[in-house]
Design goal:
Largest sheet: 8 strands, mixed
Structural class: alpha/beta
Helix content: 40-55%
Strand order of the largest sheet: 3-2-1-4-9-6-10-8
Order of helices and strands: EHEHEHEEHEEEEHHEEHHH
Low-confidence stretches: none
Strand content: 15-25%
Distance between the termini: 52 Å
Radius of gyration: 19 Å
Length: about 280
């Protein structure tokens, strides 16, 4: 078998409906060369195995979940290509996405990691916004031109195997806070470069009940707790008074602007505060 141009790694756990859309979009990529898709099934108990089998892609399955960073490490070690693209299991990638990412890697040979725009896509009753805040799911837009940057997000990110071998694996203690950030900070500390590839965009989806306000609030709370724990590990966690001020500001924004998405920001802030006062 020829060595693939790119390996695409998809960590997943119990999200069969989302994964089905993701794998269908990856199967339709328009790329000059071979590529492979590897799904790391992190202990799913739904119909995820059947979705993976129907898509006819490589699968690494673990019976017990170990978290997204462990899945990423497994995927990178399994991949055959020197360029490993990573996506979340709830994205839709247009046919030109992988080609744009691979061409970006060719244009920026010094980049150890690359990432592209992430567009929020709600397929259902999305929370209303006053227009002053970002969508309540992971998104990224750094403009219409390629540029170096500090961070990109693992929903749409590629790394070189050489950089992985230099920096080491993703820290498996992290889940939804600091997970890709920690690795990218270590890459930059080692002299590596992170590049934003402007035309390698994809959609980050929320559908059905996941598009309603309650779901992004729960996710924001969990991420807030994890981000505060990550900040504490790095020694940059702010004083509790500052966390309280931010939470109060979120409440004021929600009331003054009649903005439901202020509740999502408030949930994130409440998660940070809860972690800040948790006995250790």
């Amino acid at each position: 078998m020829p060595k693939p141009l790119v390996s695409v790694v998809v960590p997943t756990s119990n999200r069969a409906d989302y994964l089905e859309v993701t794998l269908a979009s990856l199967a339709a990529q328009d790329v000059d060369g071979e590529y492979e898709v590897i799904v790391v099934d992190d202990g799913s108990r739904d119909r995820t195995p059947a979705v993976i089998e129907a898509a006819k892609v490589r699968c690494v399955r673990r019976e017990e979940p170990q978290g997204p960073n462990a899945a990423r490490n497994t995927g990178v070690r399994t991949a055959a290509a020197g360029l490993i693209a990573m996506v979340d299991d709830d994205v839709w990638a247009p046919p030109g996405w992988l080609r744009a990412l691979a061409e970006g890697a060719d244009r920026h040979p010094r980049a150890g990691a690359l990432g592209g725009p992430i567009r929020a896509r709600f397929e259902g009753p999305a929370p209303r916004s006053c227009g002053r805040e970002q969508p309540p799911i992971t998104n990224l837009d750094l403009g219409p031109e390629d540029r170096t940057t500090e961070l990109v997000w693992s929903a749409n990110m590629a790394i070189r195997r050489a950089a992985f071998e230099q920096v080491g694996p993703f820290d498996e203690r992290f889940s939804t806070g600091g997970d890709e950030e920690d690795w990218l900070r270590r890459l930059r500390a080692a002299g590596g470069e992170v590049v934003y590839v402007a035309d390698a965009w994809l959609d980050h989806r929320r559908a059905g009940d996941d598009a309603r306000l309650r779901s992004p609030m729960r996710s924001a709370y969990r991420r807030g707790r994890n981000m505060r724990a990550y900040d504490r590990m790095r020694g940059v966690d702010p004083h509790v008074r500052q966390e309280l001020r931010v939470l109060a500001g979120c409440g004021w924004h929600t009331v003054r602007r009649a903005c439901p998405q202020g509740l999502v920001a408030g949930a994130h802030s409440a998660g940070r505060l809860a972690e800040a006062v948790r006995p250790r």
